[in-house]
C-alpha cells in the first residue's frame, strides 16, 4: 500500500510562527520603503549618481552636521571618496594620519562604531584622534561599515557639532545609506580598467597618493613592509606635530630619509 500524505503534515507550526512571519514581512516592507525613499532623494531627476551626493544625503537623512566616506584596504585607510565640509575632511585626514578612529574601528570590527559625546565619553578611546576632532567642533561621531558579502570597502562616517546619539530612525537610515554607498562604489569600480580606480571615484576624492608613494620609499630604505613603513610615517608625523601628507611630501622630495635609528626627528640626506 502506498503511503498516504496529508496536506500540512510534517513540522507542526507553533502558535507564534504566524506572528513571526508577519513581523519579518513587515520588516522587509519597511526596509524596501526606506531604501526607495533614500534612492529617490539621492538621484532626484538626475540619471547619474555622484559620490558627493552620497555624503550629502547621508548627513541630511541622519540629521548630522556632516559626512565622509573612507575607503580602506585590508586594515589600512586608503583615502576619502568625499566629505561634506572642512570638518568632515579633517575627520578623514585625522584617521588616515593616526590610524585610529570610528571608521577604522567600524571597518576592522565589521560593525557600527561611534561616540555620542566625544568630549566626555563614558569609555575613553581614540586618544590621538579625539582631542583634535573635539577642537575642530566634533562633539559626536558615528561610523558604519561598507560591506557586501565578502567585500569590505571602508566606512561611512557622520559627525555632529552637538553631543547626542542617533535616533532609531536615523540609525536605520545610516545603515541603509552605508549599504547603498557600498553598492554604488562597487558599480562604479566595475567599469574601471584593471588596476585603476574608477573616474567617478577619483572626482573630488583624496587618496593621498604621495603618502602611498612615500610608504614605498620608506619600505625600501628600511627593508620593511609597506604597512610597517606607513606606521613609521604616522609615528614621525605624530611625534613632530605634523600632518601625514606633509611628512610624505618631504620623503618624496627626498628632504627626509628614514634609517634604522629614526626617532621622529627630521633627517635630511
Write the layout of secondary structure elements.
Elements: H1 17-43, H2 51-62, E1 66-73, E2 76-83, H3 86-98, H4 102-109, E3 113-115, H5 130-135, E4 140-148, E5 151-160, H6 168-190, H7 199-202, H8 209-222, H9 226-239, H10 244-252
Antiparallel strand pairs: 1-2, 1-5, 3-4, 4-5
Distinctive features:
14% strand; globular; Beta-Lactamase; 269 residues
Q: Concise description?
A:
With 269 residues, the protein is α+β, with helices and mostly antiparallel strands. The protein is 48% helix and 14% strand. The termini are far apart.
How many DSSP helices?
A: 10
Strand content: 5-15%
Q: What order do the strands of the largest sheet run in, or round the barrel if closed?
A: 2-1-5-4-3
Give the CATH level 1 class of the largest domain: Alpha Beta
Descriptive account of the structure:
Helices cover 48% and strands 14% of the residues. Strands 2-1-5-4-3 form a five-stranded antiparallel β-sheet, with helices on both faces. With 269 residues, it is an alpha+beta fold. The chain has helices spanning 17-43, 51-62, 86-98, 102-109, 130-135, 168-190, 199-202, 209-222, 226-239, 244-252; strands spanning 66-73, 76-83, 113-115, 140-148, 151-160. It has two domains: 51-202, Beta-Lactamase; 209-252. The protein is globular and about 60 Å long. Helix 1 crosses helix 2, helix 1 packs across helix 6 and helix 9 crosses helix 10.
